[in-house]
Design a protein that fits this description.
By secondary structure, this protein is of the alpha/beta class. About 40% of the residues lie in helices and about 10% in strands.
């Protein structure tokens, strides 16, 4: 596959500019580690990483940023926003996407030369996304195919014993059904620019992304997924949220030292 840094549509039909919501947490003292840009999935915002992962990432010496999806956007617009925010950071960034945000990151990698990337609980691309979504969430996915917004239940996103799960769910925003359909029927991402190392993480107990989808996504990048049994889809908000982010940062530190 070819990487496509510039495309004809970027010139003929540019993505409309918007004021982006970007949150950050910076280490003290500042070091030479690359910034880590977190990209949330649909219905979520930058707040989902600001709850735990941003500050924890900064405490490990990495500048941490998170960008919210624009309102009434599109897959193309989300990718554009991630590329623009990453390009504006002081150093070559590490991209970390969650859920549908992982699909956005996978597409952004074909436009931006990331230092490394992490796909957390990644929604797969192309027709396999539809099969995975129907397998994991048939009653929630079917409405999106007929023009309505899909439905995700509390038990799909959060562990049963998670304190404050209802407060998190109340923060979820309604995403237009057309955006979900774009995600479901998206073309597979082009090859990343510069061949950065890519890590796939997830849970075999995820009720949104099946284990087989994790294996397929990781296999595309020549590896196997790093699994966290017992965790729900929203790894960054789970009771054991430290476990995956520490594993991600440990992996990143080793990659940077290689």
């Amino acid at each position: 596959m070819r990487s496509q840094v510039l495309r004809f549509t970027d010139w003929t039909s540019p993505v409309p500019p918007v004021e982006r919501e970007v949150l950050s947490a910076l280490p003290e003292p500042a070091g030479d580690n690359p910034p880590v840009l977190f990209v949330p999935g649909l219905a979520h915002g930058a707040w989902a990483f600001a709850e735990h992962w941003l500050a924890h990432t900064a405490s490990r010496g990495y500048p941490a940023w998170s960008v919210s999806p624009r309102a009434n956007g599109s897959l193309r617009a989300y990718v554009h926003d991630v590329v623009q925010v990453a390009a504006g950071l002081p150093r070559q960034a590490v991209l970390v996407g969650h859920g549908a945000g992982a699909l956005v990151v996978a597409h952004a990698l074909a436009r931006y030369p990331a230092r490394a990337a992490v796909l957390a609980a990644p929604v797969p691309a192309g027709w396999s996304a539809l099969g995975a979504a129907l397998q994991a969430n048939p009653f929630g996915t079917l409405p999106a195919l007929v023009g309505a917004a899909p439905r995700l239940s509390r038990r799909q996103l959060f562990s049963a014993d998670l304190p404050g799960a209802e407060d998190y769910r109340a923060k979820l925003v309604r995403t237009p059904a057309k955006v979900y359909r774009q995600m479901l029927f998206a073309s597979p991402p082009a090859a990343p620019v510069g061949d950065p190392p890519v890590l796939v993480v997830g849970s075999p107990d995820d009720r949104v992304v099946p284990r087989q989808a994790l294996d397929r996504t990781a296999g595309r990048f020549g590896g196997a997924p790093l699994l966290f049994p017992g965790m729900a889809h929203d790894l960054m908000l789970d009771t054991d949220w430290r476990e995956p982010i520490d594993a991600i940062l440990d992996w990143l530190t080793k990659e940077l030292a290689a």
